[in-house]
What we know:
Blueprint lengths: L4 H4 L1 H31 L3 H28 L13 H27 L5 H4 L1
Helix pairs in contact: 2-3
Amino acid sequence: MKNSFYDRYKNIILFNKNLLVSGIISFIVGAFFTQIYAQHDGNHIVNSLITLAMGYLVYIPLFAFLFYRDNKAKYVDPLTGRKNSNNIKNDVKKLFTAFSISKQIYCIKNIYPLLPTCIIC
């Protein structure tokens, strides 16, 4: 029996949906916060740093909640009906590693064009 496209790629679709939803909500919260903060203080650097922190404070917990909600059946041992903490720890380690590496690549990509050409050669 052929599986449908959604059945084959369900985990990937849900993961990307969670990234997209948490990213959009984090962006909206950051935009509102930037506007509100700009009305009270003219320091653009502080505004940027606080907005960046607010974005991460919304994005990471929201993504974690959505990811757990979509995958909570995976963390229950079918024989005992209890949560399998090893599966949770392994997924947290994998997600932390993936996010850390992607953020480092993102930062390097943004800094690389700013480096003088003599350092790169």
